[in-house]
Amino acid sequence: MKAMIYNGPGRRDWEEVPDPRLTAPTDAVVRVDAVTICGTDLHILKGDVPAVAPGTILGHEAVGTVMATGDAVTAVKEGDRVLVSCITACGRCRYCRTSAYGQCLGGGGWILGHRIDGTQAEYVRVPFADTSTHQLPEAVSDEAALMLADILPTSYEVGVLNGRVQPGDIVVVVGAGPIGLAAITTARLFTPSHIVAVDPAATRLEAAKRLGADVLVGAGDDPAAAVAELTGGLGADVTIEAVGIPETFELCARLVRPGGHLANVGVHGAPATLHLEDLWIRNLTITTGLVDTYSTPALLEMVAAGRLDPTTFITHRYDLMDMEAAYRTFSDAAQTGALKVVLSRTGT
């Protein structure tokens, strides 16, 4: 089969590799029918995630068809259409038993495209298939379901829920890429009074406005002045960091009010300064997190009921075999305007 291989920092190759096979009774092999590229994949290619070994197949999001299951798999069967979650869960360890699947001690957590071969391929082996896949109703398209593999539960859990967004809050989202836009979308479920989107790219701010941002702060604007004017100098109730660089984290810390919440969602590859000399007196709650995907069933229900349309994040579509072209488009988002790219298997 063909797969996108990480061959060290700055090197990726779409090449022929052996098909995956069942290696444990809890495994499933899934034919990849739709897959996407994540900003985390770009972090890996930059060398920001050294745990990824050269030779690993990239990707941790997919929708597909179950082709084979191990003897212990009971929740899905051959022929089922499933969402492959970005987080794998053994279902038995201390963390899994409290729905903290991202911290799984039994061989799960974020492993696809990280510690084992991932989803950017024609087929993928999914460990712990019973607790790491979701059967899809007919009413939910492959493209809509694919957005539930990572960006929607990540932004919802690590950004909106960790940030304790409440009705009437003023919420600032720094970074209007796919995660930031998903945070805007899911924050609206809690009816904040205003959502402020901060991003230097005009095309992303346009997308943020379309998805529900009330105030746009772009290149050349002063985020602190904009938030101060909106809040009477108090600061935002919640700031959500959705980029993953020191400057944006530190900006979120400056924009949040005393007693507020700063929710970091971005993947950081470099240290950020925590200015405790300023922050210690401000009663802030700062949270970090890896998504657990405990919210995926609820989000799936919202999509099936027509309450949430994740396809609005998709800007580019490719055939599965055009993986290299899709990477070029996604990697150059400033020029292409790419938010989420979807690669689909044709002829199925």
Automatic annotation (TrEMBL):
Domain Enoyl reductase (ER) per the UniProt entry, residue ranges: 10-343
Sequence similarity: Belongs to the zinc-containing alcohol dehydrogenase family.
Protein name, per record: Zinc-dependent alcohol dehydrogenase family protein
CDD domains: FDH_like_ADH2
Lineage start: Bacteria, Bacillati, Actinomycetota, Actinomycetes, Streptosporangiales
Membrane spanning residue stretches: none
Pfam family, one: ADH_N
Cofactor names: Zn(2+)
Keywords: Metal-binding, Oxidoreductase, Zinc
